[in-house]
Automatic annotation (TrEMBL), chains A, B, C, D:
Binding site for L-citrulline: 88, 93, 124, 128, 180, 189, 265, 277
Entry-linked PROSITE patterns: ARGININOSUCCIN_SYN_1, ARGININOSUCCIN_SYN_2
Residues given in the record as L-aspartate binding sites: 120, 124-125
One Pfam family from the record: Arginosuc_synth
Localization per Swiss-Prot or TrEMBL: Cytoplasm
UniProt enzyme class: ligase
Protein name: Argininosuccinate synthase
Assembly mode: Homotetramer.
Pathway: Amino-acid biosynthesis; L-arginine biosynthesis; L-arginine from L-ornithine and carbamoyl phosphate: step 2/3
Catalytic activity: L-citrulline + L-aspartate + ATP = 2-(N(omega)-L-arginino)succinate + AMP + diphosphate + H(+)
Molecular function terms from GO: argininosuccinate synthase activity
This enzyme's EC code(s): 6.3.4.5
């Protein structure tokens, strides 16, 4: 480990990363640059400035990355219909490569030789931050305090604060949730506490972004989402920027009890963990995107996307956003989305979202051929005989030679 | 086309297949054997006997195949978590190979040289019936009246009945639904009518198996499903046969507004079509099966299953149940299910189903390692550094040699 | 079938397609436009003009498509390392989409309403021609004489010529090979004759493009192929056009006995068939392309290409070049090839080709890290422990809970 | 790291592992159990006994594992046609899981709490040994001296021997090859030395198992291999045990210059490395296995195998033989091999191996249908029209709605 002069820290302003600032200064004798981003976590980022200043930080970066986040990370991922392990919409995973990128940009600007973050040594986030950092700046050093220090409990952290006179806002930290939470414009996640028993149901008051289906309105809400090249661009005819659109979908979904998920997932580092997620807008968007694809995508393109999707989701989950293989898959996916234009009408009601209508100038739905009524010769039913006969040929030959299938 | 002496017809007892009986007798001068199966479509099958007799049929087969259907077709498919095009639970597709198998068995028993069915020349069902038949008895002949005759409207069929004095129960047929429907123990489907416009919302009174989420009870229903080797075996501790279990899930799901689906899908014969489906029990089962897998399956096994699934679903959808490639995939899937044992607790409420608990003696969830609390050394956080460093090595080398990812 | 006014025929000038000209004129009462292409089959195309004129054809197209063929079809396919069923380099398959495209262009130019070809009803080529034609011009009609007429033997064809006074060069046709052959710049194929017995060895005098390994020079030949963006651009430093380069590789390979293949393959129409192929230049090119990729491609990109390859090869073999799914795959493949630049040195000797050297400014081979000697700290061996430990974690947990692997 | 009492070492009897014995005794103060296996590396294993005894080892295991190796590892892998990165037949990779299994068995028998091996911290073998060990005995400890000590050169090792009076046979070690080599019944590998420059051609005298193609006989050798359920069982009609059969193929291949390979491959630990391999018997076997599959496997089964193969090869290469996902794939592969019976005739000549004949009672090759001659109605060419029309339907609809493919 070579000497470190300056480190850029992903800084939230909370207890943990405030301790990290001081610990880095003390342990490495280095200068700390803080970086705080608004990616829609729902907390003010500006207060982080005063806290960093109080810790003696001289270079303080506070960025509003919401539009970039949704436009360049969330939307490209939704083009792939990415779902991890059949259920998880990757709300935490997709925010990390943006943080990694910004950390490296700031390292380049400030001449820092290391980055640091507050992710633990058991989780996926350390992997996502660090793979991204190494991929973008191979010589960078990484300091992961949770893997190094022995401050492995809240009590020890508080003690450290007192010893080192770190000005933490104890009032806010006292009423701490029993869950470990993380939020950004795409979702909020909960882990730990009673969730560590996979048989225990999450308590109703854990959920923060959505009302319970029981508490949602008795009347359904209908909305129409417009798509261009696979990305949503409008709600009910109103054109919205990426972040604004997702924010609005979050409100609509949350109000209708949509997007809660309770799963046990497999982490990249090798263990299973229980997680609960609220992804109101993302859940609506996934349904809508599949619906607009259903009338605009060729069948084989759609199936190929489905067969590539699990791999794409693994890449995002495991932290390989900044990799040539993700770019390669993205090239194929983006190629398919040129024609994914049109509108989807959705019904939101007490926890569920249904596509009830879809239309597009690029629709491949052919009423003349699909009809149960007389199609005036658009489709020749006799073609089906040859189609079936030749598709069956290999099976007929095999059966004729005695192969058994039962 | 060689001379046909005897044909086995998949006979529902309804208008269409009654016309087919007579049309086969007249057109081919052959004997007709009828086969009527109870696969849970919810209509009496016994009345088909008198109707067939009235048409002069001498060999009449009426079978209750519900248990075989669920045990040997539905459950093996659910082991694969099969979903077609991201949404469709394959409720129609999976019933066809059983019918095909039984048609061939009866052809063997009765010495028939052909089979016949009432599926149209535009749909998937003709393919599924015929591929199955050819795969199981390569020399069989297939007569698909809808591809041959010109009785291509309800009016012409009725006229044919009158001309040929076919005793149809007109009272029942008059109040005919505007939709083309098909049902079995796994689902009921709707096509045609206003659904041919993919922008038009299905009318509430179309749905038959489920109440609307709006009309579902205000209180959630909780159930626990027990699994053995990947198959459900009990509900709330009560052991049930496959068909009985699925029937009960259908009632529970239907009462809670669960399992409605409205999609545009791609048919194997090349066109897009709009379909609405109610799969109440299947929707619950899919959620439960994924949940029990989430704690019992190894990560890589689960991911491999996910990557194979789209291919498996295509095979079922396209009619290749009776094929060596489906058997090959099934061998891999079944190998994975030995350990899929345990219980899943589910919450059913107004259209949505959530897994809220899962437990198993075969659980791989390790509380000691997964915990956010002190794990007493079960997991060495320092291992993560080497893990990340070597996973990043190829990316670091590439970046060091000037490769750009942005 | 609507009335046909004018048809564009893929015309070789040989017996079969000469009969087709007259048969089309007689059977459909339509005008015939002939199209003859030089795609490197090694026969003069100009003589086709006089033959067509003698048959009363007024619009005659004769094109040299060699450069387009190699540049836009062969090379893009080699970027994918496409091999069908583990062995076949797709030499026939890849020529068909170019012919289909040109037939449709000529149909558009001449106002023809149909195309026609001389491929049989049992083979893959009919599928490839017609899928391409339909995909590029959906209203086009297709006449496939071999599926319609009863001239199903050479004798009947000759008789037809005499009856209709078709001026065939009988001298050339008498010494006909017992094999059905097809050639283009990528390969020559042999089917039929004694090859219909898969146990029978092909006779030495069947092979036309290569000497036997036994007859090849006793001294190896060394060559160096230069690549840019995945395509070969030079041999031994001499820049060559695509067709010229492939032609030269064919000569080099043929002289060294390289590129013979004898296989049983699965046709898209459902049967197995025996084929022998000579692909001298393609065999060298495949080896060289893999070798240049081996030092320039990222590992995961290379593996992703390998996992996509079988699907890509199926698409080409089955005739789906002109499809959105092939374009989608191509987008991913082409994305990967930007960095595939450099040189490969090859040894050609008596039937085998080996890569013996590869170098590139885009090489990812890192001598410092790969070395068995002291690497001066470029790689930290201790990282491997954490890498292995965490990769093993899921296996250790499973074993700890009693899972057995033996 | 807890206290280690006894360690089982994979012991070759050579310099490196002899040093490791003493180093383990000194560093860990533990008892060392040695395990030496004959897996066909071509060196006597019995001399290891005296060397181990001289080092004070009390529990010495020397096993002949050749039959087990070929029967339970090599052959199952060849059923999958496994090739890594398009070229490498996995000769080193497949031997490791057997060693790992035996190390653990011996640890169980002797009550050892650790295993150790002589693989370096840069290579794949450490991963393969250790993943296998952890998967089979999760509590086992692993000592990898090359990752711990500083004896990182041949000189330091020799010095250590002298200091510790380790009786090494210096005469044999003096004429050491410049290459790092590894051999077993499937192959011999070469790394290091001038091979570290990927542009440098391997010297002729490096190769040990095969004559150069130039030096091979002028006359081809023909052999016939018999297969049962996907495994080779005989050569030229003579039934042979697995190891004996592979040994004989090695001799035949080596004498004909077959099976040399020179590649740059991607290691699991993240770097590229140059390797040369001789796999004479394996190269013949791969060709033969594909040939017998070509007439006995269904098309879709064969294609599914091809699409799964790269993943299977990755698993073997990366060291996941002992994993549930490899077993899952193996279940699918083995299911396909029931019908892979019959004979393949091969021509071996100066470096190349060709299949020239294949026959089987389970052949799906149907001469009646495949023939270019009159097939007496076995195949109806008119079926092809419907087959093509419906396969083209989605493309025709898309083109009709204005989609462009060019």
């Amino acid at each position: 480990m070579s000497k470190i002069e300056k480190v850029v820290l992903a800084y939230s302003g909370g207890l943990d990363t405030s301790v990290i600032v001081r610990w880095l200064q003390d342990t490495y004798g280095c200068e700390v640059v803080t970086f705080t981003a608004d990616i829609g976590q729902g907390e003010e980022v500006e207060p982080a400035r005063a806290k960093a200043e109080a810790l003696g930080v001289k270079e303080i970066y506070i960025d509003d990355l919401r539009e970039e986040y949704v436009r360049d990370f969330v939307f490209p991922m939704f083009r792939a219909n990415a779902i991890y392990e059949g259920e998880y919409l990757l709300g935490t995973s997709i925010a990390r490569p943006l943080i990694a990128k910004r950390l490296i940009e700031i390292a380049n600007e400030t001449g820092a030789d290391a980055i640091s973050h507050g992710a633990t040594g058991k989780g996926n986030d350390q992997v996502r931050f660090e793979l991204g950092a190494y991929a973008l700046k191979p010589g960078i050093q990484v300091i992961a305090p949770w893997r190094e220090w022995d401050l492995n409990s809240r009590e020890k952290l508080m003690q450290y604060c007192e010893q080192h006179k770190i000005p933490v806002d104890f009032s806010s930290t006292k009423k701490k949730s029993p869950y470990s939470m993380d939020a950004n414009l795409l979702h909020i996640s909960y882990e730990g506490g009673i969730l560590e028993d996979p048989w225990a149901e999450a308590e109703e008051d854990m959920w923060r972004w959505s009302v319970s289906p029981e508490a949602a309105p008795e009347e359904p809400t209908y909305i129409t989402i417009g798509f261009e090249k696979g990305d949503p661009v409008s709600i009910d005819g109103e054109r919205l920027s990426p972040a604004t659109l997702l924010e609005k979908l979050n409100k609509l979904g949350g109000a209708n009890g949509i997007g809660r998920l309770d799963i046990v997932e497999n982490r990249y580092v090798g263990m299973k963990s229980r997680g609960c997620y609220e992804t109101p807008g993302g859940t609506i968007l996934m349904k809508a995107h599949r619906a607009i694809e259903s009338i605009t995508l060729d069948r084989e393109v759609a199936h190929m996307k489905d067969s590539l999707m699990p791999r794409y989701a693994d890449l995002v989950y495991n932290g390989y956003w900044w990799s040539p293989e993700r770019r390669m898959l993205q090239a194929a996916i983006d190629e398919s989305q040129e024609v994914v234009n049109g509108e989807v009408r959705l019904k939101l009601y007490k926890g569920s979202v249904s596509a009830v209508g879809r239309r597009s100038v690029d629709s491949l739905f052919d009423e003349r051929i699909a009809t149960f009524e007389d199609d005036a010769g658009a489709y020749n039913q006799k073609d089906a005989e040859g189609f079936i006969k030749l598709n069956a040929l290999r099976l007929r030959i095999a059966a004729g030679k005695g192969r058994k299938l039962i």
